[in-house]
Amino acid sequence: MPSAVVQLPDRQLAALRDAYRRAARAKRLQLFAGGAVALLLIVLSAIQAEVDPKTFLAKIGGFTSYFDRMATLDSGARVWTDPAAWFWSFKRSARLIGETILMAYVGTLTGAIGAFALNFVASPNITGRAWIVFAARRLLEFCRTVPDIVFALIFVVAFGLGPLPGVLALALHSAGALGKQFFETTENIDMMPVEGLRAVGASYAQVIRYAALPQVIASFATFALLRFEINVRGATVLGFVGAGGIGQDLMEAIRKFYYSDVSAILVMIIAVVMTIDISTQYLRRALLSEGRST
Amino acid sequence: MNETGAAAIDIASVKARHEALFAPNWRARTAVVGVVAAMIALYVAAFVYFDVPWARVIPGLRQLVWFVVAMFPPDPGGHLVTYLNALGETLAIALLGTLLGAVLALPLGVLAARNVIPSAFLRLPIKRFFDSVRGVDTLIWALIWINVVGLGPFAGVLAIATSDFGALGKLFAEIIESADVKEQEGVRAAGGRRLAEVRFGLLPQVLPVIAGQILYFIESNTRSATIIGVVGAGGIGLHLSEQIRVLEWKQVSFLILLILISVAAIDFISGKLRAAMAGRGSSPA
Contact, A143 vs A176, CB < 8 A? Predict the structure, then answer.
């Protein structure tokens, strides 16, 4: 069967081709204009950020050799040939990483409690008054946009060095980030139970407990677990500003060029972060499937 | 009065008839109480472990209130041009870092996709590699890059690029994996070669999603880039941490305000762009 495809007469075909060409040309022009704008932005940014390809090319060897040096002990042997020397400060680092995880835990839980308290206030379908909703949302937005490390810098001045300012910083930032996810969930709940309870005269607290909570609690737990994962990562650097955890030791090792110590701490951090990622992923899946079945 | 009484009797009789349904579920309750108790115990234990200087908490809070009072009104203190310049640096770091990370992540992300490389032998090491890069915070990468290219915004660009490389690589792989194969089959059925399959079957599906994700990362990296200066890698963070250390609270609040406004502006622009792109991607044109 030589021509199963219908061939249109040339006259009709020409019109279609023209239309296609015009459409393609318009799209290409749009793409070209977008590309030009992007290129302009990139060049301006490169000037502003003092990007210097020459320094980069001259020093890129430093980056690769950095990893080489990180894999070498002071004695010149490769790190994996002598784990005892590589992880000579294992006990101290493990204690500090434990502290880091605990900081993330306490910060996440405190933040989640704060977010939980505020999220119903920030949901217009539960709380009627527009100005309260507005105020609660701006407060959460502020907590969310200021990075945790900036809070940590300020808290270190107020409370002194140690894990306390770090925990407070994580809690405040988490409250903002979780609060947004929480009220977006609460906003979209099924309103039938809420209306039902209101109709039989339930109080504000009862509406939340029996109508809203059962619908949102599983997603809240999932968001909190995800935030815990993020906070473990974030807590590893809070020590850079003196707010506790492994960060202080890591920064010293990097600044003082103790290469094998840097790699030892990084390996431990990566191992812990991956373990926590995998276990929270497992927990989240379990939570979600349970939330669906009930 | 009469009606509520009737309802109460009704509930009592219903309860009596379906005792099993109304009985408290002790197993579920112990599980919940147990988990909550364990969480509280860990919470308390953490505070004991932290060795919190409780004597400093009340004076610290008082000081904090004083800081907040001292922050008003926000005032650049005659450094407006310097701060705006640093803000520009921050935005430049976010843009360049994200784009560089994306360019580096794309080829490896393609290789980590299940429908491109079916062999788990090759795919899994790449995914684990992405995960390890992602597990290291941007600030740590910044410190390492400072050792290599020196202090300044360029180290910040490279730090953002490195940590984005891990996150975006994983994401790109997932996007490519979730592409619909039917469109490629269609191109093949019409006689297209492998290259045409990728160009007309795969790219139109994948590109808008990838572009949207890159925009989203530029947005979130604007936040990261504001703090990368804390360790000396350029941008507004350097000034912010310095002003906090010398307790110039009016300038601190000005800088925070500047960050809030610029982050909101970038959010707004990127949100509009992403919406426009999503609209064009889903339309049949």
Answer: yes
* Per-residue model confidence as pLDDT tens digits over A13-70: 888 888 889 888 888 888 888 889 888 888 888 887 777 777 777 777 777 788 888 8
Chain A contact for B46 (CB, 8 A cutoff): yes
Domain with A162, as residue range(s), is 87-293
- What is the domain range of residue B20? 2-63
- The percentage of residues in chain A with a pLDDT greater than 70, rounded to a whole number, is 96
Which of B15, B34, B63 is where one domain is finished?
Answer: B63
**What pLDDT is stored for residue B282 in this prediction?**
44
Q: In chain A, which residue's Cα lies nearest the Cα of B242?
A: A153
In a domain, residue B68? The reply is: no
CATH of the domain at A112: 1.10.3720.10
Measured on CA atoms in the order B195, B201, B207, B209, is the torsion positive or negative?
negative
Q: Which of B33, B63, B93 is the last residue of a domain?
A: B63
Q: Check whether residue B97 and residue B193 sit in a common domain.
A: yes
Confidence at residue A105, expressed as pLDDT on a 0 to 100 scale:
94
Residues B59, B84, single domain; the answer is: no
How high is the mean pLDDT of chain A? 85
Q: Does B153 touch chain A (CB under 8 A)?
A: yes
Q: Which residues contact B60 (CB under 8 A, 6 or more apart)?
A: A155, A158, A159, A160
Q: How confident is the model at residue B281 (pLDDT cuts 50, 70, 90)?
A: very low
A48–B92 C-beta distance less than 8 A: yes
Measured between beta carbons, the chain B residues lying within 8 angstroms of A144 are none
Average pLDDT over residues A6-16: 80
**pLDDT over 60 at B4, yes or no:** no
Nearest chain B Cα distance for residue A81, angstroms: 22
Best of B140, B160, B253, B272 to disrupt the A interface (most A CBs within 10 Å) is B140
Whether B163 contacts chain A with CB within 8 A: no
- Residue in A42, A62, A146 nearest the CB of B148: A62
User: By the 8 A CB rule, do B235 and B89 touch?
Assistant: yes
Let me know whether B166 and B277 are in one domain. yes
**How many Å lie between the alpha carbon of B189 and the closest alpha carbon of chain A?**
13
Q: What is the pLDDT of residue A294?
A: 44
Residue linked to tokens 């815990």: A228
Residue in B with minimal Cα distance to A249: B140
- B75 in any annotated domain: no
Q: Select the residue of A48, A56, A270 nearest B136 (Cβ to Cβ).
A: A270
In a domain, B103, yes or no: yes
- Is the whole-model pTM more than 0.90? no
ipTM of this predicted structure: 0.78
The answer as to whether B74 is a domain residue is no
CA distances from A256 to A36, A102, A162, B79 (A): 44, 27, 22, 33
- Cβ–Cβ of B57/A150 closer than 8 Å? no
What's the pLDDT score for residue B283? 40
Of all residues in chain A, the one with the smallest CA distance to B58 is: A159
**Dist CA B84 CA B235 (whole Å):** 10
Task: Give me the number of domains chain B comprises.
Answer: 2
